[in-house]
Amino acid sequence: MQQKYFVRSGIYFSSQLVALTPVLYLFVLSIFINLQSCRGKKAMAEESNTFYTCSMHPQIMEPHPGKCPICRMDLITVKKSSGLQPGEIMLSDQQIQLGNIRVDTPGNRTMGNETVLNATLNFNQEKLAAISSKINGRVEKLYYKNVGDFIQKGTPLFDVYSEALNNAKQEYLLALERREALDNAVIDFSQVIESAKTKLLLWGMTEAQVSQLSITKKFTSTTTFYSPASGYVIAIDVQEGDYTSEGGALFQLADLSTLWAEAQVYISQFAELNENSNVIVQVPGLPGKELTGKIEFVNPEISADKKLGLLRVTIRNEGIQLKPGMSAYISFKNSPTGLLSVPADAVLRNADGASVWVTSGRNIFTNRRVTTGIETGDRVEIVSGLKAGEAVVISGAYLLNSEYIFKEGALPGAGMKNVEYNK
Question: Which residues contact 116 (CB under 8 A, 6 or more apart)?
């Protein structure tokens, strides 16, 4: 008897077997269909778990091999990571090599707290002298007419014609004459003479001028007034021929032997200021020269809009080399201490705070929020968020950030403030 065979999905079935055992045939057919279904699902899973990208242009993601549409390089195979936690990213060995991603284990290192502030040199307000008129009169002559002139204490400053002052001089001379004429009289002219002399001194005349007046018994219509202080002229508020009233401003003098270096300080930097800090002031115009200063004032009021406060340091101005208005730098150096720190390039900052990338497995990196402390030129203190001994990405952290944002859309915890990680 001739048997007939036919094919069902790649398997030969005997017509006699189908005819004799239809139940067995259905059973075998169902097993075959299930095997084919599982095999298809596995192929689909493998296909969905693999994509092809360009090593130079990671934004290219194709479901099949080929060439990069941008640079025409062959696409490389990348398997999608599975089972990653939020904030984690997995890279291939080639991506790590191309991105120059390197890790290091941070530890307690000696760090010196150094803060550099931009400052401006200003007049020492405690060394300013305001010269005003003590009488009503007309300025007949100015001996200094230029801002910036240096005036030595006791030198002539200006001449004034004052009717009231001339009358006071006349009263003083008259009292002297009466005392000489009535020397043996019962009347005591000493108090009258002393009262007239005190009036002249209060109106700006010096002891030498009053003594000269008592000797010569003569006076001119104008009176010379002398500078009560030394300094550089920073303002002239009168001209020859002007009338001045009692208390009117005439000159402003500045003693430049000391200056103020003033800087704006952020609220976060106030904790670093203390009386034991070594304050050093550097002026770009004097390269290589460091000036030691003393903190004179820290403004207790904070600018509400800028969150800034004023810091003032007094420095000596030897040789009057420094001028008000110059730019300067104020440096605070505190004693070095052992702190947990990482390289500055390892710390990423944004509006939500600071973060670092740490390794959590082979080729797996986790974004970790941290709280930073003091900073030097190349290292940053980690106050919280990191344990000693954890492997931290010190090179290529920005590339990890970009890759994660490209794949996930945003970093984990975006829009949230720093959350302290338990040490």
Answer: 329, 330, 331
Q: Please provide the average confidence, as pLDDT, over all residues in the chain.
A: 78
* DSSP-assigned beta bridge partners for residue 30: none
Q: Is pTM, for the whole model, over 0.85?
A: no
Instruction: Please state, in angstroms and rounded to a whole number, the distance separating the CA atoms of residues 323 and 254.
Output: 11
Query: Do residues 234 and 147 lie in contact, with contact meaning Cβ atoms separated by under 8 Å?
Result: yes
- What whole-number distance in Å separates Cα of residue 340 and Cα of residue 360? 20
Q: Give the separation between CA 75 and CA 345, rounded to whole angstroms.
A: 31
Instruction: Report the distance separating Cα 125 and Cα 260, nearest Å.
Output: 8
- Helix/strand number for the chain, H first, E second: 7, 29
Q: Which amino acid is at 336?
A: P
pLDDT in tens, 292-312: 887 878 777 776 676 788 888
Instruction: Dump strand ranges (E) for 148-216.
Output: 150-151, 156-161
**Record: fold of 88-112+337-408:** 2.40.420
| CA–CA distance, 390 with 107 (Å, rounded to integer) | 9
The Cα–Cα gap between 224 and 237 comes to 18
Q: Give CA 396 to chain center in angstroms.
A: 26
Residue 324: is it exposed, middle or buried by C-beta count within 10 angstroms (0-12/13-18/19+)?
Answer: middle
| Torsion sign across C-alpha atoms 6, 7, 12, 18 | negative
The count of C-alpha atoms lying within 13 angstroms of the C-alpha of 294, restricted to the half-sphere facing its C-beta, is: 4
CATH topology of domain 114-124+256-333: Elongation Factor Tu (Ef-tu); domain 3 (2.40.30)
- Contacts of 244 by beta carbon, 8 Å cutoff, 6+ apart: 133, 136, 137, 138, 139, 160, 238, 250
